[in-house]
What does this fold into?
Amino acid sequence: MNESQKFSFGDNSVASAYDNTLVPILFEPWAAQLIEEYGPWEGRSILDVATGSGIFAQLVAEQVGPGGTVLGVDISGEMLALAKSRCADSNPEVKFIESPAYPLDISSDSIDFVVCQQGFQFFPDKDSSAQEIFRVLCAGGQVVITTWRPVAECQFFGSICNALNMIGEPEVADMMRRPFDFMPDSQLTEPFESAGFVNVQLIHQEQDLVIDGGVTHAIEVAYATPIRPKLLALSDEQQTEFQKALTKLLHELSADGITMGRMASNVLSAKKQV
It folds into this structure.
């Protein structure tokens, strides 16, 4: 992948657009579902790897109580600034470290639960990252990793790719596919099996993607993804063509004008043996 195709949240305008627009409609509902399914959380030490703008860390901090701890890790300083602001009033305090997933400046056998929501597919060394998660977990600790399934199953983002192809921008479409189409199931499970985890399980989950503002809001969402700089670099004419193409596809996708298809995610769970 060349430099122009990298899918990055490091640009401050991308990070802010992501946090303001994508997080409430996409990442917050999935974080809430994860918290509901893997609780209770009280008293646990939680590590949120690739915390982004901190939505999972914020929500889980409400659950761990005074005996629990929450630590968020991300490689992006721009994202961590947003996360610190989001979690400024959390109780207990959420702490953050600017760091890649490997290595982690965290003591061995010190964490009860590690979560990574939609970040593992971007890690350059997945084997070492899984080994590092294994190292920091206590005996009996658990990890949950979520990664999007192929873009054809995440229909709104598939429509963005199709609209870009329709206006002759396949490279930008390929960039949009980065979170979805480059993480086969085996590449998710194998690093954790090799790291020594037990009870490695992979399930598929789906949710509707509801965008209350309809197609107009949905176009704003497209511009809030990390392809934002590429979209803004298009000529005014190309942007108009893209928006028209996407509007047409979304009208075909949505029966009620606000439900923009389904989102599908892999959810891996595994434990460190007692």
